[in-house]
Queue: 2 jobs
Job 1
Amino acid sequence: MSLAARHLEENGIPTVILGSAKDIVEHCGVPRFVFSDFPLGNSAGKPNDPLSQAETLELAFKLLEAAPGSRTTVQSPQRWSEDTEWKLDFQNIDRVPEEEIRRLRTEFDKIKQVGQKVRSGTK
Amino acid sequence: MSDAEKSPDIVEAHDLPVPYIKRLRDYYLTLGYGNPYHWVHYSHVPFCKLQQPLSESRVALVTTAAPLKPGAGDQGPGAAYNAAAKFYKVYSARSDEEQFLGISHIGYDRKYSTAEDINSYFPLKAMQNAAKNGRIGELSPRYYGTPTNRSQATTIEQDCVELLALLRKDEANAAVLTAN
């Protein structure tokens, strides 16, 4: 998504990204970025919370109007929850029991095979 | 500083943005995949200003969410990671119609999130409201879906080119892109 934003911007279309993977988006470098410190999958706001969603989008509009230059990130002031355990859990290999690793590898091999099959069918 | 003096705004040491690049690298290396994804980094970042007020702009919505693919298994809320639901071509669809878009093909946080509300990852309704109340001039007549290809060359040479062509055709003045 970062590459798409860069390409549109290079060709005269101002962009803003809504996202939750701060390091990934900023590592690439994008013109404008609204960072929501939420679990992945909620870049447009909290589920079943139209106010959270409207406020997130409003930050995007404000950036489109007023960002002073590229690499402008604004962090949403919203908090996902008081409990921040989700930040320690996501794909944290240190929290995966050793006996689980082989199973995860087998599972991911299958996922890759399916993905390759779908991709071959697209071409 | 004693705990009694600690500001309620000071958070736990781990309460920082999740270091996804390191997490993913460590995860897949430990699983035995020896070719970690290389996240591209640029020294130059393009920037262009909005050429007219937002209230007069036609704004496009771009997403990585996927249209429902018949026969490809569970793609709804809470679905397990579903590679069969992936798509590899840029697509577009009318932005004045409601339809299901899922993120079962994406590695979102399934433990703390269920994708039960499309509006949390695809803000079409919020964009439609913004157009209705005049915050933006109008919503582009279509929204646009872009794949999450592992190949950066494919993304740049194929997907980005097709996406730009669609936005130009629809005369979009600005774009909101929702990552997942």
Note: The mean pLDDT of chain B is 92.
Job 2
Amino acid sequence: MHELAVTESLLEITLRHAQNANALRVDNLYLVIGQLSSIIDDSVQFYWDIVAKDTIAEGARLNFRRIATQMECRDCQQVFTPDDSQFDCPNCGSGQVRILAGEEFYLEAIDVQ
Amino acid sequence: MTNRIPIVEKILSANDRIAAENRQILEDQGVFSINFMASPGAGKTSLIEQTVGRLASELKIAVIDGDIATSLDADRAAAAGAVAIQINTGGECHLDAVMLREALPKLDLKAVDLLIVENVGNLVCPANFPLGTHQSVLIASIPEGDDKPYKYPGMYRGVDALVINKTDLLPYIPFRMDFFQRGVEILNPGLVTFPLSCRTGEGLEAWLAWLTGEVERHG
């Protein structure tokens, strides 16, 4: 896993935006993580507490909004969340499916003082 | 007073920026580049050996080999006839764009037609770190099992071509090709796929023809 790389990148983005806003302190980060790209878990908070030490973002809380995978059948337009071993449409069995959600991997917002 | 600042920035955007710069460097030098990704043991190095061995007479090929600690894979690529250099990631489970950036000056890029970057064996992390190569190729293999697209969707989603290696083992292993390819098709519709065996050579011609065509198209 690569929590450290993720955390360092998060810190760079956070500090850049916080400084642009002349913030004194960062209290919260809001992360959006799709199930299809889910490579980070709550342990990122531990890394954060280390890499953000002695910055204005020290002690900030990481909040995760996880997005379930959502697919849409191209044949019957059914929208569904696939299970672990089956991506076919549960309504009509079609394999013609497109991905609507689940690939999110971004920092949505921060709370600053 | 608390103030919420909207951001909406990709978490690994710094990597993506450097990847874009890597692409520009490769473009400027006229190098076509591919990123080989796979789980450990799928046959990345074997495919490099076969590819280099068969194309070295017509293309100048360089290999950058990402490995956690050893140079075994780079040695094999060099023995097959490529200019090979090693990146030891020092424990990191993937290559990133910075590592590739630092490795590129070690090659005489003007003298290279095709650069193959062999990523660290891993089906999770490399998918999140684009390197800036022109194409990404995933090498799956029969013994891994047919459920891998379902378990590692991020990897299957982001690649430009798929090799299915070790097809010579199909008679011995319960691998539902239909089930496997159905998952792939949903994640990556129309993905160009090459079932082959590096051991017997079966199916290699189609792969080599595709690769040669891509090099020419970018040349």
Note: Chain A has a mean pLDDT of 92.
